[in-house]
Task: structure prediction
Amino acid sequence: MSREEINDKLALLPDLPGCYIMRDKDDEIIYIGKAKNLKNRVKSYFHSRHEGKTQLLVEDIDHFETIVTKTNKESLLLEINLIRRYQPKYNIKLKQGTMYPYLKITNEKDPQLLITSTVEDDGGIYFGPYPHVYAATETQEFIQKVYPLRKCAKNQKRACLYYHMGQCIGCCDHEVSKEEYDAQIKRISSFLNGEVRDIKNDLKAKMHRAADALNFEQAADYRDQIRYIETTVEKQRIMSRDYTNRDVFAFHMDKGWLSIQVFLLRQSTIIKREAALFPCYDTPEEELASFIMQFYQDPNHILPKEVLVPAGVDTEVLAEALGTKVHTPVRGSKRSILDLAVTNSELALTEKFMLIERSKKKTIGAIQELSEALGIEYIETIESFDHSNIQGTNPVSAMVVYKDGKPERKNYRKYKIKTVEGSNEFATTQEVIRRRYSRLLREGRDMPDLILMDGGKVQVHAAKEVLEDELGLDIPVAGMVKDTKHKTSSLIFGGKDEIVELDPNSQAFHLVQRIQEEVHRFAVTFHRQVRGKNSFASQLDQIEGVGPKTRTKILKTFKTMKNIREASLADLKALGIPEKVALSIKAELGSIEENSPNEKDSENKA
Result:
């Protein structure tokens, strides 16, 4: 994906929490991250300076995708599970051994509150994840003070110090009933799910009683506990103990296009997201049903125990056809995940439309602006020329074609200059213009609406002289005027060589710059190829016994100096070259580098 395409996608990112997935040029996932604000976070990778490992990551990024979540907590959960599944190389290097911690109430006779980094199907109750171990430890210690469970090992013979401090429920001192444990676990669950009003009121009452009793140290401890609740404890999502594998399908329909999002849930968390965008010719519900049937025909898509779909989809028919449960949830966590899939499908379609609109502005919109600036009705086709040589040697020209603001690479043309010796900008322009448009005349092909010369008045006058005086053609010609950085800043156009200023923020300005950069790149690349071949050919010409036919055979067969150096004597003789001449070639070229070390690789613009 080009830098321009990446910037277009960055501009469309939402100000919402979610996960971002970075991929390389082979479409492999190389990094997964989360953000409270996707737009700000993802932009920072491309618009900020980096160093070290982050710089290596940024250099490997080719394109990216995002998954929007409802809360930052959900983005954290999603990030963890995506990292576990895909093990991206940069996540492994940067986060290995530092998975986010959870608080766990164990499933046993005398349960404990522990910190763990793994979630298992063991009947325990999990809370989190927490951003780091310190946060989990602080919360664990706070809960042990106000809602203690068993803190010590079971092999204690008598009550421990923690029991006497009120930080252990005391199962070593006396039998604790299941009802008492259940009540305590219920209080902990309520607290970790954000229901903190009762405990705050209780702590305030204890603080005031301690202060009235002049026990200021204890009052300060209660005060600190209240502050902890107010500043640190956030609503935690209790991990579902429903480990049913399920897939979630949702859609959004607009302007004849259907956007489908698929979330694959395993152990109650999203492990993968798939998406599809295509024109819709039936009702969206029927199209979705057809998509689901085709989805599970792929051997890589294993049928889960349950499929969630939006309202309106025929769940009975789908369930019978698939042989699994198909359900439309109306409330609870299942409905929440379905709504999340709908949100993502809507965002994906909105992004598509906005990218199309931005593309139109950069192409059709830019052409309209340029047409207005030059006073031309509509510029459908632009042909642009550039020349390249080094101190007048190996002169070449190149032409690029843009139609409706987009490059047409199949119509690009290269020209070796035949009638001009040395660096002669005027004569070189005339030769190329003559060759191009006399051929179009002979073949009866369409002429461009505008010719852009990558040069000033000299090239414009040379082109007009050939077009008008020799060929009788009336094609507008404009010259691209450069700034100190060799970037187009304005155009020369019209009979009096008027300077046409373009707004630097306009799409027309950016289009002309893109054309100037493209034709320059194309010309320079061609010049390097010609220079390399001519250098090779000139070296061959200096070898006794190598004539034009032998030189042509060698050039066609080996193409580069590296290949000729690696060729054996038998390879040369196989071309019909006498052994004596073949030995001379190996002797003369075997130690010569393909490019002379003192040759400068810079192009003087003609």
Q: What stands out?
A: The chain has 20 helices and 19 strands. The domain at 246-351 is CATH 3.30.420.10 (Nucleotidyltransferase; domain 5).
